[in-house]
Amino acid sequence: MHLSEQEIQRRSDREELEKLGIDPYPSETFPVNVSTRDIHENYEKRKMDYKDISLAGRMMSRRIMGSASFAEIQDSRGRIQLYVRRDDICPGEDKTLYNTVFKKLLGIGDILGVKGFVFTTQTGEISIHVKKLHLLSKSLKPLPVVKEKVDEAGNLQTWDAFTDHEQRYRQRYVDLIVNPEVRNTFVQRTKVVNSIRNYLNDRGYLEVETPVLQPIYGGATAKPFKTHHNKLDMSLYLRIANELYLKRLIVGGFDGVYEFAKDFRNEGMSRFHNPEFTQVELYVAYKDYIWMMDLVEKMVEKVALDLHGTTEVQVGENVINFQRPWKRYTMFEAIEHYTGVDISGMDENQLRETALEMDLELDGSMGKGKIIDEIFGERCEPHLIQPTFITDYPIEMSPLAKKHRSKEGLVERFEAICNGKEVCNAFSELNDPQDQRERFEDQLELGKRGDEEAMVLDEDYLRALEYGLPPTAGLGVGIDRLVMIMTNQNSIQDVIFFPQMKPEKKAEVSSVQDYIDHGVREELVPILEKLGIQTIIQLKELNPNKLFNDVCGMRKKMKLKEVKNPTLDEVKAWVEALN
RNA sequence: GAUUCCGUAGCUCAGCUGGUAGAGCAUCUCCCUUUUAAGGAGAGGGUCCUGGGUUCGAGCCCCAGCGGGAUCACCA
Question: What pLDDT digit, counting tens, does each position of A60-90 carry?
Fold first, then answer.
């Protein structure tokens, strides 16, 4: 493994610490009695309470000014400045702890425990005057150092920010250490989930768990991930939704169930799509979609209030206001409003023509429902910035929703659209088993026409419906997208800790032992590595005379006086062994 | 999957028409009793993503690949 200069330095610092009898990874607990946030919030009010404090965290900066130093330590809540004076942490004659350990062997990124008292410096910064200093964990990787300053206007300026998306997502731990707003986004994410969970629990709905591995996937139109169970020797699918299982539970007699579900869809990725994502689905017996619209409005309004204390949320250029009531359009009204065309009476051919006139791309597998969905998705959805309910969808695109009580060809379904994207989907659940069977059969037909997302027929679900599903309202809320809006993030990757990425490629590198086994003296290995040789195989292609010269030259350049040069015969042996 | 942009030191980024690689921070050494992104002085640090090609000569030009971003498509 190739180590950078700084990594080698840190490994050597670690060894020096051990030689001084300091365990770089001690096992004893370090008692903490205060957080940085507690100090910042309460010190001014209750100064006497902060005379004997104990705090742990990661050292983020260090400024040495002779026999006194300043450092910043970061815990899970924030940062605070440390004031470390030589004669305080080294009261006796031996000044090693300050001069050697603190000034030389510790570094940015190390996790420290400190004991002392809180005070305010001459420049007015609340700080900890350190009396005792403990190393709790030595960091061997240099941390990207981000400097920040609040200017007179109150704006946060940053220098050398850690911004590379690939590194931030692959090494989220580093992202979290150096970019505090990232941590905050994820705290907010959990608040969104808690807010919804509390809302639903307060109404007496039961949080449940249903299978992730499903023999028949269902509940949505999407392509699944397929896997295999060895002992049962059968195919299983990672769920694309949990809808059908939750409704089985309503059949079983629960009157309100919900689940925060990780769902998996084997489709494209974008800033709105990760292969695994989170939805909360809720089913409530003896209710309909109109009732559910009220619930969504109240619940999401509460989420905004819980997070921000207001119903208004800044999202990109827009301020989105979640205050009830939200606008409501039927799907046909929305299309007419944004395109001027009334499609409510059209058959499939007329719809196809209309869509083509709007320059939309269609393919042969698209039925009536998909075409309408295409028109809506292209011409209406992007315009819907403020939260808006779209109701009464065509029956063809909603195989699990109940027929509309009064409008022919439609179902009792709504979506809430916000910032141009769907954030939830709900309907009065179809509970007529015969109708449901026919809808599944229509889906099979679509599947035969080439629609890869068409649903498959689930006999067990139909059997459950035959026992009788009460009238039920169902809801799915995309948590990732709701969090994106609530936290003003532009990409789903910024609200998922570990978004899916291609694996990092590992460069093939021979180990020192590989070289020794090949007859290369250990002390010569760093020279070969320095010459850019990664694997022993590479030696095969080299001219032994040139390699001999290069090794001797590099030994001189690296000033390795104690290393004996190889002989030409030695080098020839390395190369010939491979040819 | 398509289009397009990007990949240079631990981090952020320069690098001209092709002429053997630079800055700030970080690191190291020395000096220094309270500083506010930054105390002073000095030093070291590079597979210029990878592999081919063109050329006397490639970080730069051409081709292929890998990884990532953005937009579009599919979708939530």
Answer: 999 988 888 999 999 998 999 999 999 899 8
The one-letter code for the residue type at A564 is K
Residue closest to sugar C1' of B66 by CA: A505
Q: How far apart are CA A338 and CA A257, in angstroms?
A: 37
Residue A174's nearest CA partner among A188, A189, A187, A164 is A164
Is residue A302 over pLDDT 80?
A: yes
CB A295, CB A256: distance < 8 Å: no
Nearest Cα residue to A329 out of A384, A379, A374, A391: A391
Question: CA nearest A199: which of A304, A319, A324?
Answer: A304
Question: Interior CA angle at A77 toward A74 and A81, to 5°?
Answer: 35
Buried b (16+ CB within 10 A) or exposed e, A287-317: bbbeebbebbbebbbbbbebbeeebebebee
Whole-number Cα distances in Å, A414 to A25, A328, A392, A531: 56, 9, 6, 65
Q: How far is CA A504 from CA A42, A43, A158, in A?
A: 45, 46, 29
* Predicted complex ipTM: 0.87
Strands of A440-548, DSSP E: 472-478
Diameter of chain A measured on Cα atoms: 95
Angle at A162 (CA atoms; ends A157, A163), nearest 5 degrees: 95
Strand partners, A314: A319
Residue A481, CA: closest nucleotide via C1'?
B76
Q: What are phi and psi of A254, to 5 degrees?
A: -70, 145
Closest nt to residue A263, judged CA to C1': B76
- The closest of A3, A133, A107, A142 to A55, measured between CA atoms, is A133
Q: At what angle do helices A289-308 and A479-487 cross, to 10 degrees?
A: 40
Q: The tokens of A119 are what?
A: 């005070």
CA dihedral of A536, A540, A542, A548, whole degrees rounded to 10: 60
The answer to whether the beta carbons of residues A137 and A151 sit under 8 Å apart is no
pLDDT average, residue stretch A95-121: 92
A9, closest nucleotide (Cα–C1')? B27
From the CA of A386, how many Å to the C1' of B19? 59
Q: Rounded distance, CA A357 to CA A359, Å?
A: 5
Averaged pLDDT, A505-523: 69
CA of A163 to C1' of B6 (A): 13
pLDDT in tens, A170-213: 999 999 999 888 999 999 999 999 999 999 999 999 999 999 99
Nucleotides of B under 7 A from a protein CB: 1, 9-13, 24-29, 31-39, 44-45, 47, 66-76
**Amino acid A549 CA to nucleotide B44 C1' distance, rounded Å:** 25
* A510-CA/B44-C1' distance, Å: 27
> What pLDDT is attached to residue A339?
86
Phi, psi of A94 (to 5 degrees): -80, 110
